[in-house]
Amino acid sequence: MVAQLLGLAFIFLSTSLVTCNAQGKSVYPLCPPAVQINHNWEVVYLDASVYGVVGRAVILECGATSPDMYIWSFTKPGTEAIKAVVYDLGKGTRIQKLAEKLGQLTVISNSAAVSIEKLSVAAHGLFTCQAFYDIDGEPKVYYYYVHLTVRVPVSKPYLLMSDASPVEGGRIWMRCNLDNGTGPINYVWKHEANGSISVFAQGNSSVINMTNVNRNHSGWYHCVASNTVNSEASNRLKLETMFGPDIPDIVVTPFSLTDRGYLALERETVSLLCQAQSNPTSQYFWFYNNSEASAGPHFIISKILRKDAGDYACLAQNTQLNTRSKKTISLTVYYPPDGSPTCSLEPALNHTSLRLLCSWPGGFPSPSLQWTTDLKPLGPEEDDALLQTNKLTNTAILLLKEGLTTSNGLFTCMGSHVALKQTTACQTRTYIPPADPACVAYVTNTKQYLMLSCSWNGGVPNALVWWEGPDGQVKGGEETSNILVLRRGTALSGKPYICRARHPLLAQTKTCRLTLEAPVLLTQHRTVSVYEGSDVQLNCNLRASYLPVDEITWFNNQGVDVRGTAKYTLSRTSAWANLTVRDTRQTQDSGEYRCSTSNAVGGTEVSVTLEVKRYPMPPNATLDKVMYNSRLRTEVDLEWQVDNKEKRGLTGFILEHLWVMERPGRRSSASNESEESEERIGQPVWYRNIIHDPDVRAHTVGKLTPTVTYQFRIVPVNHRTLGHPSAAKTPAEPRFNVAPAVIGSAIGGMLFAAIVIVLLLIFLIRNRNSHPRLHNMLFGLHHSQSRENINFPEDEMVRSAEGGLEESGGSASPGPPITLPRASSPLTLSTQSATPTISQAPPPGDDNEPVNVTITVKATGS
């Protein structure tokens, strides 16, 4: 059988292997001829495509399991020749010289797959793996066609430009050149300008044309070439578009503009900056009232005076393109007051009134100041409280509390100047804080103190805040905020702590309160039921609390903290903590679990009862067949049935076998076969084979010891619940016919005995002088005158004409002549006995007298 498979393999190697598609078209030169295979065999053909990259590694698979023998061969595209690369015919891997041209080829251990590192372009083609399985039994042959496509990465491209400095409105082209790369190749052109990169163009062409080039096209360019293997970017090339100058822009610093032009403050430094878009950069010339005043983009006037007002012109010139442009501005010199008006609000008359102040000194012409808010006039008795000085530069108005029209007052002071385009203003406000007082409780880092904080921010002027608590726990008034400090555990649960706040503009006080409580824990389900083996999550949620709480802690059904144990998994936040019990067991995990926490006021806990249930018993299974599948006694075929009339759950089986006894006589010589004895081999241990498919009804157990007697049984499984094991059975021997063996042994024994006898006779005849007694015993006469009647001429006695005997040395005793007939062969074969027997006893007389002996030989087959 092995010879036939090898012959099939090398017949395949000698043919021209190709691959044909469904339309009969060939990827390689010709379609392969039909492979001559025994009609009982069936060859499986499988195709696969693999892509590799030059210089990298690729793996070519040859089936999912390792074959007994395999041959890898290679066919180069466009040729008909198929050449061996590596093979293993059962005596180890043999790598051919051809593999060196393909790359560094190695065979992956425990398989027929090959790995080719440092892949060469020469490896592009068709690889064929001929795999032979089960060559000692019913052989199976697989042909794996692996089409390896070797791709070449793109090399680093380099960029070319027809003109790196075109004039705006012109035309250029750019080319992205490559030395290597497997197509199709995609080109992406990228433009980098002002710190940003954008895709300018893309496609499969390595050349792009740019028409009507403008200044926006200036910048750095590079191309990216990519194929299915990799991408490579070229170095950058800079494109400089020549243009300009445009109409200049003049920037006046400091900036001020009116209908008459630009305004400047007297005795300040005025900077005039001329900018015109141009490449290359333009040259600039400044003109004051048509007279050249300076060269360069900057024209700085230090300590400008009123006489410096007039027309300023900027001329921009591009000397390379020989183009120019010009712009003129008008500058007027004024000086307003420095800064802007300032407004302020301050308490007056022992915090019963407010004082408004507005000031904006300096400037030419002088600024105008005015309060825009409607104010209630003051009475004559309050004239002494009114302060008003220099209405244009400083305004002070005193308001009594009763003079406000609303609780919240916005007061605006407007200031204007002829040198300014818009008026400027300042504002001041008096108002009550926008919200109610805010109370919050928190615990210090050491968790030793509880702090109650009350604040009322945002009011003008500030509010007064103080605490009032139960049992005389009071904290005096402070502005804006106040903090009451309590030791941990001294706070009274369920009783309010009140914060009071007062503002000068309100007749009544504002309050906020805190009611301190211990935390409250909630859970969705107080009792949770799961089946054994599942993971279950127990949840514990914290109801909203004003006080921060300690970390939520879970305790298992034994009252032990679950942190740091592999059995449990905790997921938590500040508001909840969920406990996951993994791989639940009924006896181990059922019971009551507790989660607890505490804060500065007190502690609490909630319990959850976990009930772990077992899955129902699976249906019973019965073994129908337990039999060795060969005389080798190494594999046993088993079949079973399942009684599931009640439709009970079934998820798999456990097939168990037990070593019952070992027969040592099978391992001893043939002479001791009659002395076989049974002996026990260790303690009984059931070995398991787990079957996860509940629909399976047959299985083969292999790798058994031929000299051991086994027992088998099957146990049905429903998840974690094991059913009743079936009755144990010992495998039966396969049927076997002994008649051919007995007949063959008998014939062989008879042939061997016949050959031995013939050789013995030839030896005695040729050496009769050396063994005369044995020779005479087998071929001698009945008396002294008798002689051997044989057909050898050298031993023949010449008979006399009268019929007497010729004397051979002396005179014979007188007597009548005796005629002796030729006897047939003195030995005859008999199948009755193998022991030589003498058919006639020797006559009395001389011991040396020859005798006639008949030997019967019985040959029996063993």
Question: What topology does this entry show?
Answer:
Elements: H1 2-14, E1 43-53, E2 58-60, E3 69-75, E4 82-88, E5 93-95, H2 98-102, E6 104-107, E7 114-117, E8 125-133, E9 140-151, E10 158-161, E11 172-177, E12 186-193, E13 196-203, E14 207-210, E15 219-226, E16 231-233, E17 237-239, E18 249-253, E19 257-258, E20 261-264, E21 270-275, E22 283-288, E23 291-295, E24 298-301, E25 310-318, E26 323-333, E27 342-348, E28 353-359, E29 368-371, E30 394-400, E31 409-416, E32 424-430, E33 438-443, E34 449-455, E35 464-468, E36 474-479, E37 481-487, E38 496-502, E39 510-515, E40 521-522, E41 527-531, E42 536-542, E43 553-555, E44 568-572, E45 576-581, H3 586-589, E46 591-598, E47 603-613, E48 620-628, E49 636-643, E50 652-662, E51 686-691, E52 698-701, E53 708-718, E54 721-722, H4 739-766, H5 772-779, E55 827-830, E56 855-858
Parallel strand pairs: 1-9, 20-26, 41-47, 55-56
Antiparallel strand pairs: 2-7, 3-4, 3-8, 4-5, 6-7, 8-9, 10-11, 11-14, 12-13, 12-15, 15-16, 15-17, 18-21, 19-20, 21-24, 22-23, 22-25, 25-26, 27-28, 28-30, 29-31, 31-32, 33-34, 34-37, 35-36, 35-38, 38-39, 40-42, 42-45, 43-46, 44-45, 46-47, 48-49, 49-52, 50-51, 50-53, 53-54
Question: Which features does this protein show?
Answer:
6-stranded mixed beta sheet, disordered N terminus, disordered C terminus, flat, 862 residues, mainly beta, 7% helix
Overall description:
The chain is mainly beta and 862 residues long. 7% of the residues lie in helices and 40% in strands. The chain contains 5 helices and 56 strands. The strands form 15 sheets. It has a 6-stranded mixed β-sheet with strand order 1-9-8-3-4-5, covered by helices on one side. The longest helix is centred in the C-terminal third of the chain and has 28 residues, at 739-766. The radius of gyration is 59 Å and the shape is flat. The two termini are 30 Å apart. The model is unreliable at 1-39, 376-392, 666-681, 781-851 and 853-862 (pLDDT under 50).
